[in-house]
Specification:
Helices cover 44% and strands 30% of the residues. The chain is α+β, with helices and mostly antiparallel strands and 273 residues long. The protein folds into 2 domains: 81 residues; 117 residues, Immunoglobulin-like (Sandwich), CATH 2.60.40.1240.
């Protein structure tokens, strides 16, 4: 799934919506997914808009709006597909039957053992419960220690020594990223959470662009950490949108580089706290 997602994203960034649709349709066919009809409908909408534009039935502005909507729907479809797990092929009905029977038998066996343990607790079981309580206490203490790695126990502001704004140009189109706000706080015993609020300003020259988590990485100790969160927006031509992502990095880090991407172009903004 990551391969087809990256392929679709790259084709959309390059304004090759039709190729992205064809690539996704072929991939869905190979996985026997129910989303095939949705992808075919998107392709039909795209072809209809192309025909209407060629016959001057709609204006270029209306066509651009339709293409942007199709791109956005296509990306949402890819995200929904990513949440599913596809088997290499459909399981035969007979095999499904005995698999269901085996699963039911195992569930009954586990339930019976659970009831026996409740009705007839053994000495070993009581010892196990005491060990579990001790383990939980240790975990709680460890978490407390991790949470206190920041002396104040609160989020600290992140600074950008070389500025909080960067611009990228790809295919004569300019996008400007501005860091509106950023903070770092303890997350658990191993990690800290760095949150970044970003503004994406798109110049003229294309129908729109996707403003999503995949455009950002935080490089700490020479290792890239992927952005997390649900950022997935469509920025229209000559407009802007604000979004927020966060990164989980080692708790001892006090400096990192925020990598920004637009098309095939990347740049970094150093940060420290």
């Amino acid at each position: 799934m990551p391969e087809i997602k990256e392929q679709v994203q790259k084709l959309i960034i390059e304004s090759k919506t039709e190729e992205a649709l064809e690539a996704l349709i072929e991939w869905i066919k190979s996985k026997q997914s129910n989303e095939l009809n949705e992808a075919i409908i998107l392709r039909s909408r795209y072809e209809q808009a192309e025909r209407d534009l060629g016959m001057n039935l709609i204006s270029p502005e209306d066509a651009a709006r339709v293409f942007s909507q199709i791109n956005f729907s296509l990306l949402n479809l890819v995200d929904n597909l990513e949440k599913k797990t596809f088997a290499p092929g459909a399981i035969p009905a007979k095999r499904r039957g005995w698999l269901l029977a085996l699963t039911s038998s195992l569930l009954i066996l586990v339930l019976a053992m659970f009831i026996l343990k409740i009705l007839f607790p053994s000495r070993e079981l009581r010892g196990s419960e005491q060990t579990e309580k001790s383990t939980q206490t240790s975990d709680s203490e460890e978490k407390t220690i991790g949470d206190s790695s920041n002396k104040s126990g609160k989020a600290v502001a992140v600074q950008f020594p070389q500025g909080n704004e960067a611009s990228l140009i790809d295919s004569d189109v300019k996008v400007t990223y501005t860091i509106l706000e950023s903070s770092a706080e303890s997350y658990n015993a191993e990690n800290q959470k760095v949150t970044v609020k970003i503004r994406c300003l798109l110049g003229e020259g294309r129908f729109g662009m996707n403003f999503w988590s995949s455009s950002f990485r935080l490089i700490a100790d020479d290792l890239p950490y992927a952005a997390q969160g649900n950022l997935n927006e469509l920025v229209e031509n000559e407009s802007f949108k604000d979004g927020e992502v966060y990164f989980l990095i080692p708790k001892d880090a006090r400096a990192a580089d925020l990598q920004l991407r637009f098309g095939d172009q990347t740049t970094i903004l150093p940060l420290k706290w």
